[in-house]
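Run log, item B.
One chain of 285 residues. Sequence copied directly from the ordering sheet:
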Amino acid sequence: MAKTYDRHAQSVGNIVGLEHCNVRIPDQQIATAFWVVGMGFTRDPYLMIGLENMWINIGQQQFHMPTGKAQKFPGWIGIVVPDLEALVTRLTSVKERLARTEFDFCLERDTVLVTCPQGNRLRCHAPGPQFGDMTLGVPYVEFPVEQGTADGIARFYREIMEAPAWVEDGVATVCVGTSQCLIFRETTEPRVRFDGHHIAVYIADFAGPHEKLLKLGLVTEESNPYQYRFVTIADPDTGAPLFELEHEVRSFTHPMYLRPLVNRNPAQRQPTYQRGRDAFVPGMA
């Protein structure tokens, strides 16, 4: 007899990739000291190379940081880095330079918790099976939400965005492609006012969610043929608002879909230079 398989186990849903997180920053020099020197990431060499914006490459994901009044994500941004020990060494080297900012870091078990100069909180992990084959990238973004909203948030992503989503112990998890997710964790902490930060996602069915969002009156920007935006996550039945997070929604036909990103090997140093090791290669020792 032919072998049978659970074909649903290989379904990733409609949201196939989280591409970038976007926050405004007041000082690009401080941002460079943190994101490039301290974290060891790479400034995109091709786009946004002036003083008005900064794109930081992290594997196949990015941080976009236009210059302006500081914004920050209210929860945690998960990041996979190839070497936690090397990360701690780099962060230590910029501690004095960033002394008058919100910058901080600590080692907690097998995770490095980092606060960027303007207060965004990062959980840095070593590669592992829970992140698939990702060795450098952004596997999740986690948001604190009001109690009683996780179920509605999960239904919104299932019914409107057509993405697998489930709730367990007050935490809604939304599947994004093969190794990423959005996490919404219920909390009793006071709600943080939305300040305009956003995420960018690519979806397979571009028109279906758009039609549903229009019916709920949630589309906030018709950007171009390849992109639209919405902010409010609402109960799909009642339309009641549950959480605010701007989504930059992109199609597979977007010109920047799967754009190759340059990532450097931060271990390269002039005194110990190794020919052929300038670029980061997944799995590199």
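Observations after the first pass:
- The first strand starts at residue 15 and ends at 22.
- Residues 13-250 form a domain with the 2,3-Dihydroxybiphenyl 1,2-Dioxygenase; domain 1 fold (CATH 3.10.180.10).
Flagged for discussion on Thursday.
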